[in-house]
Each structure stands twice: as structure tokens, then as C-alpha cells.
């Protein structure tokens, strides 16, 4: 069981991220790339990070767009430190788009 | 501009596919794999096919599940032969799950 972050902790985390926002209980961002190749390349790099963290995104891809939602299953779908860690890795990979 | 398939053509195509159904104007299927690695491995192989066909899916991944929706943008979001072609390649890659 993971511990959900407090509202204050989530706000602090969002302050360190660009373009992320609350979407219900989750953290969400839409990445827009120049092509499908770039979008899927981003996803592939993130996939390895997700495996390494043993924490996986909910994400939807349509052509050059990737919509990401992060929440933690074993915290009842709330945001935990795992989501913030994955979001930060995504930001590094996605070039803060 | 691509030509939408008729209802009869779509029914015939669905008859040659397993587990696919209409979802609004699109063709849709949910693939369930044994792990995130398998699910993302499937997506990676399909990504190359999509690039080769220059026709891309709308798809959502959560852990071991991949929900796919296929329709053709330049046919007003209707189903065309391109969607059927991509669905058939997905079936071969996904092992008709």
C-alpha cells in the first residue's frame, strides 16, 4: 500500500513540473510532438523508465500526441511519490514540452 | 481523401478478425497481455507497421492492456480499407488475443 500525497505535497510537485495538472485524482499532461515517430520514441524511452520504477502510466497516443495520466493503483488511484518520480523522468525525456 | 467502407464491407472485415467490434464509427479491440512488457512490445511492433502503412491507431495503454480504436482521419473518422489493413497486421502481431 502506497501513501497518497497531501494536497500541499501535490501542489509543490506541480510547481516543479511544467504543463502538468490535476485530472480528477491523477496527474495529467498532454505531450505534442512533431510526428508519430517522435511521440512513440518518447513512449518507448518512458516505457523503460516505467519498468525500472515498476510504476506504469495510463497513456493514450494519437499520431503526434501522447496524453498521460498518472495515479497509483495501490493507493486507491490517488497520487503518490511514485507518480511524481515518473512525471519527472517523463519531463527529462520529453524535453519539457 | 479516403473512401469509407460500406456497412456490408465492414461486417465482412469483422468476420475475418477476432475480437474486433464497431465503436461508434471506428473499429475497436482490447488486447490483454501477461505484462506491461508484453503489451508495450506489441505496441512497438505495431508502431513500425503503422509507420509503414502511414496509418496510425488511437490507442490507450494501462499496464498489460491496450485498447485500440481505428478510423481514418481523412475519411471523416469513418472506417476505410486502411483500418482493416492495420487491424490485420495487429492480429498477426498480437497472436489473435
From TrEMBL, chains A, B:
Parts of the chain that traverse the membrane: none
Pfam families tied to this protein: Pterin_4a
EC number: 4.2.1.96
Catalytic activity: (4aS,6R)-4a-hydroxy-L-erythro-5,6,7,8-tetrahydrobiopterin = (6R)-L-erythro-6,7-dihydrobiopterin + H2O
EC category: lyase
Keywords: Lyase
Organism whose genome encodes this protein: Nibricoccus aquaticus
Signal peptide feature range: none
NCBIfam families the UniProt entry points to: PRK00823.1-2, PRK00823.1-3
Protein name: Putative pterin-4-alpha-carbinolamine dehydratase
Biological process, per Gene Ontology: tetrahydrobiopterin biosynthetic process
Matches recorded under InterPro entries: PCD_sf, Pterin_deHydtase
Entry-linked SUPFAM superfamilies: PCD-like
GO molecular function: 4-alpha-hydroxytetrahydrobiopterin dehydratase activity
Similarity comment text for this entry: Belongs to the pterin-4-alpha-carbinolamine dehydratase family.
Keyword check for Lyase: yes
